[in-house]
Amino acid sequence: RAAFELPPPAPPRAERKIYLVDRPGSVQTTLMAGNIAVDRRSDDYIPLLVMNQIIGGGPAGRLFLNLREEKGYTYGAYSSLAALEYPGPWSVAADVRTEVTGGALGEILKEIERMREARVSEAELAAAKRTLTAGFALALEQPARVLGFAVARHLYGLPEDYWERYPELIAAVTADDVQRVARRYLDPNALQVVAVGDGEKIKEVLEKFGPVEVYDSNGSRTR
After folding, report:
1. Which H helix or E strand runs over 17?
2. How far is CA 111 from the centre of its chain?
3. At what angle do helices 122-139 and 175-185 cross, to 10 degrees?
4. Which residues pair with 213 in a beta bridge?
């Protein structure tokens, strides 16, 4: 059996950077923004799940309510957390009209700042916990999902009673926990932003948010 050594985990980026993929003639911009957060074993995983649900886990999330319902910039704006063997990213994604690219990115940054600087309300916290717990309960009715839970427990060395205690772990998250993980992992000054759109129309707007590297649709850097 051949011996091998896995590469070290990728560290989070320390400074904000904008990556523009030029798609001439595009009528919209696909925005993604995020940074490395945690692996699946982290004690911060559950608080991050709750935080993510509040800021962008669905149509009741702050990003959706802001960018779609209030501003009308997009059909939807969501966030997600990927935590596996290695630390994965917390990220935001939205497709917006070309002319509101700057406004949309500004609102994303504003919502990140708000999550960091102000404690979430008890109503938001309770709603997020209900959604996560209800989703878990529904998943228990699907054999494939139950098998996935067992596999995850084995892969990541989780306690044997982890899934029995999962609703309790969700319920135990406080508003202070949410703000703590937001401050630790959602750093707007270190955000990595990818924008796919018409470079001629959005490059100058994006430069207001940080250094911009431009790539063509094949992934080759042009400037």
Report:
1. strand 17-22
2. 12
3. 90
4. 19
Among the listed residues 183, 171, 153, the one whose alpha carbon sits nearest the alpha carbon of residue 46: 171
What is the per-residue pLDDT across 73-105, written as a single tens digit (0 to 9) for each? 999 999 999 999 999 999 999 999 999 999 999
Cα end-to-end span (Å), the chain: 46
Pairing of strands 28-36, 17-22: unpaired
Structure-block tokens of residue 108: 């994303």
211 residue type, one letter: P
Residues in the chain: 223
Residue entry with tokens 């470079």 = 199
Amino acid identity of residue 95, one-letter, is D
Going by C-alpha positions, the residue among 161, 191, 86 that lies closest to residue 149 is: 161
Distance of CA 47 to the CA centre of its chain: 13
| pLDDT at res. 66 | 97
Rounded distance between C-alpha atoms, residue 92 and residue 186, angstroms: 11
Span 170-196, average pLDDT: 97
Residue 22 tokens read as: 């030029």
**Per-residue pLDDT tens digits for 127-170:** 999 999 999 999 999 999 999 999 999 999 999 999 999 999 99
For residue 101, the tally of other CB atoms under 10 A from its CB is: 23
Joined together, the tokens standing for residue 12 give 């989070």
List all residues 6 or more positions away from 173 whose beta carbon is below 8 Å from its beta carbon: 46, 47, 50, 125, 129
Q: What would the two tokens of residue 95 be? A: 């497709």
